[in-house]
Amino acid sequence: MRRIRWAALGIGLLTGTLIAGRLAYASDTVSFNVPSVSGECPVSWTKTGVTFQATVPGRTPSSFTLEGGTGTVDVAGDPIALALDPAKLSDAVALTVNLTSGFTLSDGKGNVVELSGGQAKAPTGGLTYLVRHPADPSGVRMAALDYPLPAKLNPMLVSTLPVELTMDATTDLTITPEFAKVLNDAFGTGSASGGQTFGSCTGHAATA
C-alpha cells in the first residue's frame, strides 16, 4: 500500500509540474535560448574584378557559413498546444540570431566592402550587418540583405519537458537598396540594384 501511495504521489507531482508549465505558457510570449546556429549561404552575385572572401568559408569558395551564431526564439503562446497545429506554431515563432560570420568584397583598386557582426531576424526583419566601405571605413549598421517575407522557419516541437524547438529554413537572399548603393559607390555604377538576387541561405537552429 505504501508503494502505491508513493507512486501516486510521484505521478501527482509530475502531473502538477506539467500543468504548471502549461499554465506558464498559456498566454505570454515565452523566450528560449538558441545556443548555436548552423547553415550555409552560397553567393550568386558576381562583379567582374571583385573577389568574394568569407570570414568562415563554406563548402565552396563562393559561400559563407552561419556557424557560431546564437540567439533567442520567442513563441507567442503555449508551444505545446500550438504544436498540434504546425501552421499556428509557425505563425507564433520569431527568431533573432547574432552571427559571428561575414564576408568581404574587394577589387584590384583597393576598394573593400566588409560585412561583420550580422544579425538575422525572421520571419521578418532581414539581415543587418556592420558594413565598412571606402566612404565609411569605421562602418555603419544597415539592412544589407533581405528575403521573401515572411520567411518560413518550419518550427518543430521536439521535447515537451523541457520544451525544445528546432527550426529549419531555406530562403533566397536579395540586396537591399542601401547595400546596393554601397556596392555601386565602391565598385562602380551598375554593380548592384535593390532587390537583385545575392544568393541563398539554408540554416538550422535549436533551443536548449
Give a quick rundown of the structure:
The chain has 208 residues and is an alpha+beta fold.
Shape label:
elongated
Q: How many DSSP-defined strands? A: 12
Strand order of the largest sheet: 1-4-5-7-8-9-11-12
Radius of gyration in whole Å, from Cα? 22 Å
Fold and architecture overview:
By secondary structure, the protein is an alpha+beta fold. Helices cover 22% and strands 48% of the residues. The protein has 4 helices and 12 strands. Strands 1-4-5-7-8-9-11-12 form an 8-stranded antiparallel barrel. A hairpin with a 3-residue loop joins strand 7 and strand 8.
Features:
208 residues, alpha+beta, 8-stranded antiparallel barrel, 22% helix
Note the topology.
Elements: H1 2-24, E1 29-42, E2 50-54, E3 63-65, E4 69-76, H2 79-82, H3 86-92, E5 93-98, E6 103-107, E7 112-122, E8 126-133, E9 136-146, E10 156-160, E11 163-175, H4 177-187, E12 197-206
Antiparallel strand pairs: 1-3, 1-4, 1-12, 2-6, 4-5, 5-7, 6-7, 7-8, 8-9, 9-11, 10-11, 11-12
